[in-house]
Amino acid sequence: MVHVREMDGADIEAVSTIRVRGWQAAYAGIVPRTYLDAMSVEDDAGRRRQWFSQRGRESKDLVAVGDRGPVGWICFGPCRGRLPGARRVGEVYALYVSPELIGRGIGRILLSEAHARMQDQGFEASALWVLRDNERARRFYERAGYQADGTTQDDVYDEITLSELRYRRVL
To answer: 30, 70, 77, 143: which one has the fewest Cβ atoms less than 10 Å from its Cβ?
Structure first.
C-alpha cells in the first residue's frame, strides 16, 4: 500500500507529474483540450520549486508514497476566503492521485491525514473548491463528508468559463 509523509524538495518532479497527469485525466471533457495539452511537467515543476522555497509559506504538502515513490499529493492550509459561521477554517487547495491508481483509497488516505493535521493546527472546519462538472470529484468529497455550501466562483481556461463550487465540512 502507501504511507504518507511530508513532501520535500526531492519530490517536486514526481508531484508535478502527478498534478499534470491528474489534470489531463480528471478534466478531460471539462477543461478545454488546448489548455490541458499545453500543460507540462517541466513548467509545473519550475513553478513548484519557486513556490516550495518561499519562506513563511503557510500551506502544507503531503505525499502518498508507494514502492516506486510518490503516487499522490495533497496541499492544504488556512482558508483563503471567509466562511460564515466558522472561526478557524482550513482549506484543501489540491489533491491528486496518479490516474492509474484512482479508486484504490490513496486519495482517501491523503484527505484523512490532511484533516487530522488541520485539526492539530486548531482548524474546526475544512473547505475546498471543485469544478461543477467534475462529478467524480464531487462524489469523492461528498463521501468524505463535504457538502456544497452554495458559493460559486468562475475560472477561465482558454476563453472558456467554468464554475467551481465550494464544499465544506466540520472537522
So the answer is: 143
Q: Check residue 110 and give its pLDDT.
A: 98
CATH number for the domain including 47?
Answer: 3.40.630.30
From CA 33, how far away is CA 143, in angstroms rounded?
29
CA-based nearest residue to 131, from 53, 13, 18, 36: 36
Q: Which residues pair with 165 in a beta bridge?
A: 130, 152
| Residue carrying the nine cell digits 488541520 | 118
CA distance 158 to 164: 16
Phi, psi dihedral angles at 112 (to 5 degrees): -60, -40
> Hey, how many other C-beta atoms are within 10 angstroms of the C-beta on 154?
9
Q: Residue 87: phi, psi to the nearest 5?
A: -85, -55
Domain of residue 146, residue span? 3-170
38-73 residue pLDDT tens: 999 999 999 999 988 888 888 999 999 999 999 999
The residue type found at 120 is D
Higher pLDDT, 117 or 81: 117
3-state secondary structure 45-99: HHHHHHHHCCCCCCCEEEEEEECCEEEEEEEEEECCCCCCCCCCEEEEEEEEECH
Residues for the chain: how many in total?
Answer: 171
